[in-house]
From TrEMBL:
GO terms for molecular function: ATP binding; four-way junction DNA binding; four-way junction helicase activity. GO terms for biological process: DNA recombination; DNA repair. Residues 170-216 form the Holliday junction DNA helicase RuvA C-terminal domain. It comes from Roseovarius azorensis. It is found in: Cytoplasm. Pfam families: HHH_5, RuvA_C, RuvA_N. Has three domains with a flexible linker between the domains II and III and assumes an 'L' shape. Domain III is highly mobile and contacts RuvB. NCBIfam families: ruvA. Residues 1-64 are annotated as: Domain I. This is Holliday junction branch migration complex subunit RuvA. GO terms for cellular component: cytoplasm; Holliday junction helicase complex; Holliday junction resolvase complex. HAMAP family: DNA_HJ_migration_RuvA. It comes from the Bacteria. The RuvA-RuvB-RuvC complex processes Holliday junction (HJ) DNA during genetic recombination and DNA repair, while the RuvA-RuvB complex plays an important role in the rescue of blocked DNA replication forks via replication fork reversal (RFR). RuvA specifically binds to HJ cruciform DNA, conferring on it an open structure. The RuvB hexamer acts as an ATP-dependent pump, pulling dsDNA into and through the RuvAB complex. HJ branch migration allows RuvC to scan DNA until it finds its consensus sequence, where it cleaves and resolves the cruciform DNA.
Length: 219
């Protein structure tokens, strides 16, 4: 399976790019959010990919980070959510937004994605509430861009080094700390998501403090 490709963008369309890898063109579908972050034709790009195999078609879907790819695969496990719907959700909310919506049970936020109705959004939240903390705990990760023209045939590339704690990286560390303190993944994810929403710029220590305050028994 093709797990990551890198090369030159030949052209961009509304929902995909064509990437030239040593003379071979790979058509890769991406979310609007990912497409907006890519360079124009002639620019070099590296994307993690997920290959969808059906009887009549093979399609590659591209992601800038491994956590975005993992969310895509998790979203597609929900009944009624295909690859295009998953990309629509990723494009509308981004990885952090998806995790926050699921952790808080905010299915209405998921309906911001084009073509996603209330029933599908509710299924996303209900079916992934116990699985989402595991992906959220991955945090924000980035990988060094491979050499231009390199194609990596690997379904599960090695986890790259984490970036400095901030954003979802800080949320992942806070989530890990709370679960180590004995809170369930669901409780911890909900508290961290709410704390991050209230204080978007908070670093790990502050997120832990705010989350513990939310988790404290009210009397």
């Amino acid at each position: 399976m093709i797990g990551r490709i890198a090369g030159r963008i030949d052209y961009r369309a509304a929902d995909h790019v064509l990437i030239d890898v040593r003379g071979v063109g790979y058509l890769v579908y991406c979310s609007e959010r990912t497409l907006s972050a890519l360079p124009g034709p002639g620019g070099q790009v590296a994307l993690y990919t997920d290959l969808l195999v059906r009887e009549d078609i093979l399609q590659l879907f591209g992601f800038t980070t491994l956590i975005e790819k993992e969310w895509h695969r998790l979203l597609m496990s929900v009944q009624g959510v295909g690859a295009r719907a998953s990309l629509a959700i990723l494009g509308a909310l981004g990885p952090d937004g998806i995790g926050r919506a699921i952790a808080l049970g905010d299915w209405n936020a998921v309906t911001a994605a084009k073509g996603i109705g209330a029933k599908t959004a509710q299924r996303v939240v209900n079916e992934l509430k116990d699985k989402a903390p595991g992906v959220m705990a991955m945090g924000a990760t980035t990988a060094p861009a491979p050499d231009a023209g390199e194609a990596v045939i690997d379904a599960a590339p090695a986890m790259p080094a984490a970036v400095a704690p901030s954003g979802s990286g800080a949320q992942a560390e806070a989530l890990s700390a709370l679960t180590n303190l004995g809170y369930s993944p669901g409780e911890a994810a909900g508290a961290v998501a709410q704390a991050a929403g209230n204080a978007p710029r908070a670093e790990t220590a502050e997120l832990i403090r705010l989350s513990l305050k939310l988790l404290a028994p009210r009397g």
